Amino acid sequence: MLRALAFTVLSISLVVGENSSPPAKGQNVVILLIDGYGAELFNRTNSAIRVGAEALLTNGVKAGYLRPVFPTLTYPNWFSLATGLYVESHNFTSDYMYDEEHNIYFERDEGPNDTNHIWWEGLPDPLWYTVGKANIDVHCYWFGSCHRPHRDLIVQVPKPRRHNFKNHDVVNVFNHLEGIFKHVKKYQQYKQQLVLLRYNGIANALRQFGEESDAINDALSNADVLIRDIQEKMTQHELLDSTNLIVLSDHGLMEIYEDEKYYIEDCISDLSLIQRVVNSLSIMMVYPVEGNTDRIFFELKSCDQWLALGDYDSEESPVVQIYRKEELPDTLYWKHSRNIGPIVLIARPGAAIISRDLPTNEVLETHYRDLHVHSGWDNHNPEMQGIFMARGPAFKPNEEIPSISIIDIQPLVLNILDIESKHTANGSLENIQGVLTAGWEDRTATDDASTTSFLTAACLTVVGTLVRHLM
Ligand SMILES: *[C@@H]1O[C@H](CO)[C@@H](O)[C@H](O)[C@H]1NC(C)=O
Ligand SMILES: *[C@@H]1O[C@H](CO)[C@@H](O)[C@H](O)[C@H]1NC(C)=O
Ligand SMILES: *[C@@H]1O[C@H](CO)[C@@H](O)[C@H](O)[C@H]1NC(C)=O
Ligand SMILES: *[C@@H]1O[C@H](CO)[C@@H](O)[C@H](O)[C@H]1NC(C)=O
């Protein structure tokens, strides 16, 4: 039965061929996520290496910046992108987390216990799940966590295309473009397509060599060529009427000030009263030995090294702010998450909190050595803002809005694909209403995941979604 169905549809696609261009079933979305490409960096990038981006903007929409969530680190923002939720509603609190109950660490997907289900427990549906369940093909290229099973669905991602921070190579998105757009073209009359691409060249170059390097110029140029090539492929395969391209980043990166590095050990009289610290540089979570939280909090709060600067100049924010977990500002939308230590240190942008002797996790130590730039600081700081631009049938040409939030992306993409999420996102379309083409508000979500097309589609998909029905 399954095979028969698959065969029928395949034959149709062969008969119809590629030239007659039958209408697409609905709009497609291609997202290119560029790690660590800040809006400020974009703004000061030489126009000679912004050719692809300018072509996109002439035909589409630009946001002055994309506001990340706090902390402006990778995992919190990747999951806010995927769910449309603040961190405290998805609980990927930081790139490094400690689970007190099970005594294990999460270490940026590099640690031995990072695949443990407890980190993902209760995770609201990520974009690829909601989209896959709506019978739309999902294709992931180095998109974090996309290959992980969620409820009753697995997006099949071949191993070489899975995100892995252990591999420091720059991923080669270029090699896949022709295959991707051929596939979109071929199948769009039967199924809508969502393609999630990630490029890590800019973040890699910044972290390793800093902003004043040839490496960063090469990476900026490569990213731009990528943006240009994607549009060329879309043109070549006549996809401009059916396919939207969104280019964005998760957060910016900024230089760590050499003269604003602070050792937490310099504030603590008895190091044995601290069990562990988790994260460093922009934020640090402190886990005191039971019964010592008040004492450690007081020592940190009154520590000379950051008081000196903070107290005398009231205009400037303190170098390091010390909070008990329950006193963290509500406006961070962070404190109700699990896996935040009893005491949290938050550094002023550019300043860094470091630990020399206290127990922490190994991956953290090796990762943070010799780092030129970092993120994690205040999500309103200009250097932490990301980029957003988009073109396609859903977007007006040559439009600009002041900003968009990372939590607005999930509602935006679902709206273009015309499907609904089980949860209500914290982000909304409000920010971007003015840049969407007329008529979008009239669309209603349809539920056409009929069994037949569902199964047929599953067989048909070559590199797309493998749907495992757990009945
Ligand atoms: C980048 O420039 C745009 C103007 O094109 C401006 O609206 C935006 O605020 C700038 N972004 C940052 C982070 O400076
Ligand atoms: C991983 O889990 C094992 C078994 O519970 C534990 O012994 C080890 O310390 C953990 N390591 C990390 C980095 O969480
Ligand atoms: C996040 O953590 C909080 C605090 O432990 C918990 O109440 C909440 O249910 C968690 N949310 C999710 C989505 O797991
Ligand atoms: C964010 O969305 C979640 C899920 O819809 C909701 O439970 C939570 O209250 C929202 N948070 C805020 C600050 O509105």
Q: Indicate how many domains the architecture comprises.
A: 3
Q: Provide the low-confidence segments as ranges.
A: 1-18, 444-471
* Average pLDDT rating: 88
Strand content: 15-25%
**CATH architecture verdict of the largest domain:** 3-Layer(aba) Sandwich
CATH fold description of the largest domain: Alkaline Phosphatase, subunit A
- The radius of gyration over CA amounts to 23 Å
Strand order of the largest sheet: 5-7-1-8-17-2-18
Distance between the termini: 18 Å
> What's the total number of strands?
19
Bound molecules: 2-acetamido-2-deoxy-beta-D-glucopyranose
CATH level-1 class of the largest domain: Alpha Beta
Organism: Panagrellus redivivus (Microworm)
Protein name: Choline-specific glycerophosphodiester phosphodiesterase
Pfam families: Phosphodiest
InterPro entries: Alkaline_phosphatase_core_sf (IPR017850), Phosphodiest/P_Trfase (IPR002591)
Defining key terms:
single chain, 471 residues, alpha/beta, Alkaline Phosphatase, subunit A, Gyrase A, domain 2, 3 domains, 7-stranded mixed sheet, 19 strands, disordered N terminus, disordered C terminus, binds 2-acetamido-2-deoxy-beta-D-glucopyranose
Describe the 3D structure:
Strand 11 and strand 12 form a beta hairpin. The protein is built from 13 helices and 19 strands. It has helices spanning 2-16, 39-44, 51-58, 74-83, 127-133, 177-187, 201-209, 214-236, 293-301, 304-312, 362-368, 409-417, 451-460, and strands at 28-34, 60-67, 96-99, 104-107, 137-141, 154-155, 193-199, 243-248, 254-255, 261-263, 274-278, 283-288, 320-324, 343-347, 352-354, 373-374, 386-391, 399-405, 465-466. Helix 1 packs across helix 13, helix 3 packs across helix 8 and helix 7 (201-209) runs antiparallel to helix 8 (214-236). The chain folds into three domains: 2-20 and 457-470, no CATH class; 28-85 and 124-252 and 381-447, Alkaline Phosphatase, subunit A, CATH 3.40.720.10; 258-370, 2-Layer Sandwich (Gyrase A, domain 2), CATH 3.30.1360.180. The chain binds 2-acetamido-2-deoxy-beta-D-glucopyranose (NAG) (4 copies). One 2-acetamido-2-deoxy-beta-D-glucopyranose binds next to strand 4. Pfam families: Phosphodiest (PF01663). Residues 1-17 form the signal peptide. This is Choline-specific glycerophosphodiester phosphodiesterase. Keywords: Signal.
